[in-house]
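Issue 218. Parser rejects a valid record. Input:
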Amino acid sequence: MVTISPNIARILVALVLAGCGAQSSQVSSPATTNGPGSGTTGVIASAAASIALTPTPATVNTGGQTSSIQATVAASTGAAVADGTTVTFTVSSSALGSVTSSAVTTGGIATATFTSTNIPGSVTVTATSGSVSNTTLITITAPPNGSLEFVSATPAVIGIHGTGQQEMSTVQFRVKDINGNPVVDGTSVSFIMTGPTGGRLPALGGEYVGQLDATPTTASSSTVNGYADVILNSGSVAGTVTVAASVTSVTGTLTTSSGPISIGGGVPSATHFNIASSRINLAGLAFSGKEATVTAYVADRFGNYNVLQGTAVSFYAEAGAIDRSNTLDSAGTTSVIFRTQVPIPTNVTAIGWETTLQADLNTYYGVVTTAHPRDGWVTLLAAVMGEEAFNDANGNGLYDAGETIVDLGEPFYDKDDDGCRNDGVTKNCAGVISPSTEPFEEYIDTNANGQYDGPNGVWDGPGCTGLNCQTSKMIWTPLTVAFSGSAAYCAVSWWDTTTSTWKTTPFSILAGNSVSFAAMIGDVNTNHLPVGTTIVVSATVGELAGTTSRTLLDGLPWGPTEIGFVLTDGDTDSTWDSTAVTVTVVGGDGVAGCTPFITGTIQ
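Output the parser choked on:
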């Protein structure tokens, strides 16, 4: 055996390499295959040639439900591609859902997740690896409708059409599926309205829902995020409206109704307009600065007081002074201050009942006077833009030709309280063409034509169509109050049964008998004194019965205060005693009173 040293071995190797041209080579391992007869195992293909897609499940519901998309990727040999091969995924419509953007293979399989939105339909999912792609279809269905509920009506009170108020209310409902989630967008909801006009067309004054069309009581809309809205539009009639909504479900039709929605607040109506005062009889003939609160009450022709808040009401006064205007509150009222001052009420000519009163004062009390109550009366006016009254014969909320109207002229101070305007110069209400004995009555020139215009013979109000009608009509209402003063007429009289006359001379009462008395107290215009005036009757001898005391209440004075009482001989002797019957009057509101008395004897 020959032994070669290590050094010699290295030399031999170097010679061999040199003989090969000093070249080097690198041997790569053959590609691994799994083919039969290869003599090797674990061989993996490197390029995708086909993709097979399987969705599980192929049908999902809306609202975030998912489907697992399995992409099986194979090489041209049919073998699985190498692990880690990237597969991208896309959807045909992002509105219907989303999918995992990419995944890598394991054992030739890549898995992505599809997630639905709230819109039903069909969506295509595409998987791509390299230059190879494939698609699969996923169907998205909506769960059945499960519930329907009323949400709101905003606002819940709207104004009658044409009044300048909010005329539309948004009525909203919510629909949920059987899982309690909002239904898919586009779910159809039907509406039907019940209102005060019973389905009358809008052109005839009816309210309506949805579009302005020939079907005013019905409409439909589609859900957005589970909500469905419909617009209610007011008509010309006040009343309560309800809107019912309905949707289909697996169990039938789901229906629910809104809360009540009120239509009201029309323009002020002449038949629903008045003023009132906290005091009717003020001591204006004695003092300046006595005050009363005057309140206007306004409503529309249906009696609803929620007319347009902020509507201005103007006030006027024949005598004294009053705040010019104020605006209505939410209750259809407004108040101003009226105070006493100059001018005082205008003197007017006495009429029938006043001349009778003058004659009676002379007959009963011996009072001779030309004074009379209306000389102390004061006309107050309130005016507002609105409509004249009419009888709505067909109930459509609109004035129709031939319906009865209450025709108003321009506002004026009716100083003589006869119901018509006098110009104080050439004519009076009787139409007499001669110098008038009545005072000039100021008026409000609403159309600025420089002359007083009486009733025009047509209905005036919003939407009127008559010749020369006024779509914006100043309606007005009067109130009569009074200025009274200190006691000017005070008298006591007794009834003489022998002559059947009233007398102011001394009286005489026989033992056991009685005499009837009457007392009257009035101011300079023969009106009763202001509220709070007290009247007390006393007698030095005898027993009094009847009205022996009174405290005056407020009210329009139609003449003096009169009381009746009886004086009776109450003792058992036969001695004649002198007596005096005294009526003590203490004026109210600071005015001066009086103390009339009458003397006589009593047995």
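Fixed in the parser; the record now loads. The two ends are 193 Å apart (CA to CA).
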